[in-house]
Amino acid sequence: MTLFELERNADFEQLIRHLEASSNPDIRRRAAEILGSLEASADAEPLQGNPRSPREEVIDALVTASQDDESDEVRAAAIDALDQYGQDALEEFIGDLSGQDLEDLAEWKKAKVLARGLTADQPELRMAAATGLGRIGEDNVVSALVDRISDPDSRVRTRVARALGRIESPESVPALSERFHEDQYSVRIEIAYALADIGTDNALRELVDVADAEDEVLRRIAVDALGRLGSVEAVEVLANALSDEADTVRRTAMFSLVQLLSEAPANASHQIREKIVGELEAADEDEVVEPLIEILDRSTETAQRRNAAWLLGRVANDSSTAAAQDALIETMADDDEMTSKFAATSLSLLDSDGLEQRLLELVEDDLRDEELRVKALFVLGKIGGDTSRNRLSSFVERTDSDRLRKRGFSALSKLGGVGTVTGDPA
């Protein structure tokens, strides 16, 4: 079985075997990453004949790999996987390595022990200590973390930056900003995320400045991080990046704008949506529509797909209408009901010659997905004319689906073809 199949099946036993026994460090690293991602599934009942739960087996395997694997990357991946299993898992590793039991200590005492671990000889202990401090979130350890932002091991610096982002302490911004300009890219990515999570004016200013840097990779890193802010201030910068000379930066900017909609606080959501739509309407159409379609086609993040579907109906026009319609019609069958509704609503905003006929053919095709046909009826209720009234009148008489019949009557009612019907036509 491939690692993908093992992940899909949550086969902890085989994944642990790959982590412990594979001769390929890339496979061991990937096995550790997958084991971390499966944390939510690890509380299953123990297999017959095994007194231990998958969670216990996984944590033990990750603790061992964190200490003993010959690859730096595998050890780092194992520590990050332990982080996903929570503070207790990290403390088990730290206790094994340091010889100190943290289980019964108060949080502030744990923080002091972990702060001492930042100066340990073993880089893995420093990595775990930084990660644990970020989880505890005590402000009194910020200075200890800031001191380690120049640790000689880049893996430690990466996790120190991540911890400072979790704590969201404004006092760490100067040190993070300084390191942002002189470290390797893998560390700079975490620093950018930390600055975005801290979100103060000077943190935002640092990201905005770097978004205009000569270095293409740095621009992409900054643009990616700005999507985490959920603020109006980031929208204009990201909109400007849609015309960047580098394709990777342009696409990252669109992903960030979509992500920003998800991160926006409720009290600013409407303002941010209006700002984004206004900026996208003013941007080059090709630079906007194609990335949104790509998100609908490839993204597995529900929030991203919802927002991409919502935006597409508001920014597509002229030459991009046909492509946007194709993407939205496919998305109307999405498993997520809200994504499906957003796609249908957006499609109703993109009426053009041929759309009514296309949707009628879809509704009348018994081989198509019922959810897709239901949403097509919703759109026809908004854009249809005489042709829709005539064909839907016939359709509701012959369909065997109660749901399609109700939705058909609802569409006809909106088109003036029938009176209001009893039941729930929506």
Automatic annotation (TrEMBL):
<dbReference type="Pfam" id="PF13646">
    <property type="entry name" value="HEAT_2"/>
</dbReference>
<dbReference type="InterPro" id="IPR004155">
    <property type="entry name" value="PBS_lyase_HEAT"/>
</dbReference>
<dbReference type="GO" id="GO:0016491">
    <property type="term" value="F:oxidoreductase activity"/>
</dbReference>
<dbReference type="InterPro" id="IPR011989">
    <property type="entry name" value="ARM-like"/>
</dbReference>
<dbReference type="InterPro" id="IPR016024">
    <property type="entry name" value="ARM-type_fold"/>
</dbReference>
<dbReference type="Pfam" id="PF03130">
    <property type="entry name" value="HEAT_PBS"/>
</dbReference>
<protein>
    <submittedName>
        <fullName>HEAT domain-containing protein</fullName>
    </submittedName>
</protein>
